[in-house]
Each structure stands twice: as structure tokens, then as C-alpha cells.
């Protein structure tokens, strides 16, 4: 057997650990060959962009951030941007990718990515390519798996930032608003907010009332806590409002969220008169090496992806259900987004300890 592996979409901590799990299981346990496809699906369209992987070539990558295969969220072969006569047009180059897959002599492909990448993998599966998926994203927004790898590391990074921001906020008696990633779901904000002792946590699933947020901050000030930490998910919105968008990615057309931290900061400053500062954590949450939970999850996912191929279970994505690794069809994997339940246990935990969720 000769299998390929690619990493698509935005990077996230744990991608290299998945690659390592796949290469070791395929090469050592089953004596297969592994080919790395570079820059996501784009590597199946462009010339070159392939390299042999073996246990020697992946030495030392377990703790490394990013992906040794590089990634791209702009190379959807079904909707590929090409320049013709000076203007950019979209073309379906999926047949070209199918051809390259055959020419390299691949028997199967492991696709590591988020919902967008899984949707492309599913289209290739339906065209006859034997693919299996591995779910990745710091947003943790895939219903099919209890956790995606990368999420816990992002939460750890945000929590560490909150610890640091606490000391400076307390020293200056300031309100610090911290904008975290997560796209349209509030998992990073909610989990890091609880772990980092935030006073307010604003998530997309609970449109916030700014007056309630200000009241909470003022009450804290009156009771002797002269500082407050407000964690805002980038997708959070005011009651009756919309998400704050800072632009659109030119090539992929994907909405780029951001700016809600500044808006909340301005409103809190105006309404309370307190000294307010805003910090946007940004891509720091995606960078760096994975924490041990993500190293273990990534390794388990990588091993299981090879087992899916061994047993011919193409068109499936590995997932975590409780403590067990299993698999779901790619159709199921991309069908539902996993959002924070506004009345679920985590939100109730936060509110029970006095955190204002903006309602
Ligand atoms: O999906 C992961 C994520 O980091 C989101 O949390 C964020 O909104 C987005 O990607 C940022 O994308 P980009 O790297 O294209 O700016």
C-alpha cells in the first residue's frame, strides 16, 4: 500500500503529531509507503509538492507547532482561483487532482482538516478517491467529535494570557477586554474564561446586553474589585446585532471575524467611565506546540486513520466519543456545527460562580 497525507485549512497545534502517528503506524506496523502532499489540496493540483515520508523524516516533530507539510485554505480544487487574461476566475480542477493522485500511485489519502477541508474530502470521496478524514480546529465546532485536536492547546494559551492580564489589570484598576478566536462558536472563550477566572464571558450563542455587562463591572468595582476581565469571543454579538467582520479573505471569500473586542471596550469605557484596555490574542492561539492532551489525541487520531484505511472504511472521519476513538461518515462529519448550549453545564458552571454571560 502507498498512502498520501495532507493538512488543509488553517494550521493548529497537533498537526505534526497526527502526521507522525500516520507515518509510524503505516511504515512500521504495516510496512506501507507514505507520501506527504504539501500545501493542502493545492499540492494535488500544482507540480511537485510531494515528498516521501518515513520514520526518519518525521523525527522530532511530535512537539512542534504548525505542519511540516504546510497548509492552505485557498486551494479548493473544485473551486480553484486561476488567472486568465488578467482576471481571476474560478475553475473546477478536481479531475486534475484525481489524475495526480493516480499518477503518484496512491491507494488512499488521509486528509487532516476542519469542516471546509472535510467537505472537499467528501467531494473527492464521491468522485471515487479513497479518503479518510482527521478533524482539526482550535474552534472545536464539529458536532461529530467531542474534541478536535488543537482546541485544548488554544484554551491553554488563552488561559495563560488571562493569568498575565489579571496582574496588570489589578495593578492599574483597569477593565481588560480580551478578544479570543473561535469563529461562530464560543468554546475557546467559555473554557479559557472559566479556567482563567474571567468576570464576564461573551459568546456568540448568547447575544449580550451591554448594560448587564457594565452593571456587573460596576458592581465589582463598588464591592472592592477595582478591575475586571471580560473575555469576548470574536463571533459574539450584541442583542439584536450582528457579528463584527473585519473583512473578507480575497482568495477564499471567507468572512474574517474581528473587532468585537474593541467595540465592547469602547462601550464599557463610555458607559462606566472606567479605564479600559483591549487585547486581541489572534493567531497566538494557533501557534506553538500542542499540550499533552492534544499530542495524545492527535497520535490516537493518526493511528486510527491508518486503521480505517487498513479496514477499507473510506469516506469516514476519525472522532472522539467519550474516552473512545471511533469514526463517522464524512457526510455526518460536516452536517452539524457544535455550538455552546446556553443552558448547558459549562454555562451554568460559569454563572454559578458569578460570571456574567451578558444576559
Ligand atoms: O478556524 C480557526 C480560526 O483560527 C478561527 O478561530 C479564526 O476566525 C480563523 O481561523 C482565522 O483565520 P485566518 O487564519 O484565515 O485569519
Structure description:
With 359 residues, the protein is α/β, with parallel strands linked by helices. It has two domains: 2-149 and 290-322, Rossmann fold (3-Layer(aba) Sandwich); 154-286 and 341-352, Phosphofructokinase domain (Rossmann fold, 3-Layer(aba) Sandwich). The protein has ten helices and 15 strands. Helix 1 crosses helix 8 (292-310), helix 4 packs across helix 5 and helix 6 packs across helix 7. The termini are far apart. The model has no long low-confidence stretch (mean pLDDT 96). Bound molecules: 6-O-phosphono-beta-D-fructofuranose (F6P).
Task: State the CATH class of the largest domain.
Answer: Alpha Beta
Distance between the termini: 56 Å
Strand count, sense and closure of the main sheet?
7 strands, mixed
Strand content: 15-25%
Q: What is the CATH architecture annotation of the largest domain? A: 3-Layer(aba) Sandwich
Shape: elongated
Radius of gyration in whole Å, from Cα? Answer: 22 Å
Count the helices. How many?
10
Estimated structural class? alpha/beta
Helix content: 25-40%
Number of strands: 15
Return residue spans where pLDDT drops below 50 for at least 5 consecutive residues. Answer: none
Look up the CATH topology of the largest domain.
Rossmann fold
Major beta sheet, strand line-up: 3-2-1-6-7-14-15
Oligomer: single chain
In N-to-C order, the SSE pattern is EHEEEEHEHEHEHEHEEEHEHEEHH
Mean pLDDT: 96
Structure, briefly:
With 359 residues, this protein is an alpha/beta fold. The protein contains ten helices and 15 strands.
Primary descriptors:
359 residues; alpha/beta; Rossmann fold; 2 domains; seven-stranded mixed β-sheet; four-stranded parallel β-sheet; 10 helices; 35% helix; elongated; binds 6-O-phosphono-beta-D-fructofuranose
Amino acid at each position: 500500500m502507498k498512502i498520501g497525507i495532507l493538512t488543509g485549512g488553517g494550521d493548529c497545534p497537533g498537526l505534526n503529531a497526527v502526521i507522525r502517528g500516520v507515518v509510524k503506524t503505516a511504515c512500521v506496523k504495516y510496512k506501507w509507503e507514505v507520501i506527504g502532499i504539501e500545501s493542502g489540496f493545492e499540492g494535488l493540483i500544482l507540480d511537485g509538492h510531494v515528498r516521501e515520508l518515513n520514520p526518519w523524516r518525521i523525527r522530532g516533530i511530535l512537539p512542534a507547532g504548525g505542519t511540516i507539510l504546510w497548509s492552505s485554505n485557498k486551494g479548493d480544487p473544485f473551486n480553484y482561483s486561476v488567472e486568465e487574461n488578467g482576471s481571476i476566475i474560478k475553475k473546477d480542477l478536481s479531475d486534475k487532482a484525481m489524475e495526480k493522485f493516480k499518477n503518484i500511485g496512491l491507494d488512499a489519502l488521509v486528509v487532516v482538516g476542519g469542516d471546509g477541508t472535510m467537505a472537499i474530502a467528501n467531494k473527492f470521496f464521491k468522485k471515487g478517491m479513497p479518503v479518510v478524514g482527521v478533524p482539526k480546529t482550535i474552534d472545536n465546532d464539529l458536532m461529530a467529535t467531542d474534541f478536535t485536536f488543537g482546541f485544548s492547546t488554544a484554551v491553554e494559551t488563552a488561559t495563560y494570557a488571562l493569568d498575565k492580564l489579571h496582574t496588570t489589570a489589578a495593578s492599574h484598576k483597569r477593565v481588560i477586554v480580551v478578544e479570543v478566536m473561535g469563529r461562530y462558536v464560543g468554546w475557546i472563550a467559555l473554557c479559557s474564561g472559566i479556567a482563567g477566572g474571567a468576570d464576564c464571558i461573551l459568546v456568540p450563542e448568547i447575544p449580550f446586553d451591554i448594560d448587564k455587562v457594565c452593571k456587573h463591572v460596576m458592581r465589582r468595582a463598588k464591592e472592592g474589585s477595582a478591575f475586571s476581565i471580560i473575555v469576548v469571543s470574536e463571533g459574539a454579538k450584541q442583542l439584536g446585532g450582528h457579528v463584527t467582520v473585519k473583512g473578507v479573505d480575497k482568495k477564499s471569500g471567507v468572512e474574517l471575524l474581528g473587532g468585537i473586542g474593541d467595540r465592547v471596550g469602547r462601550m464599557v469605557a463610555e458607559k462606566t467611565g472606567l479605564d479600559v484596555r483591549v487585547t486581541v490574542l489572534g493567531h497566538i492561539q494557533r501557534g506553538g506546540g500542542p499540550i499533552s492532551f492534544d499530542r495524545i489525541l492527535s497520535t490516537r487520531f493518526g493511528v486510527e486513520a491508518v486503521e480505517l484505511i487498513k479496514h477499507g472504511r473510506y469516506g469516514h472521519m476519525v472522532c472522539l466519543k467519550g474516552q473512545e476513538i471511533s469514526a463517522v461518515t464524512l457526510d455526518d462529519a460536516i452536517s452539524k456545527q457544535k455550538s455552546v448550549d446556553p443552558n448547558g453545564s459549562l454555562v451554568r458552571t460559569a454563572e454559578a460562580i458569578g460570571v456574567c454571560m451578558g444576559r
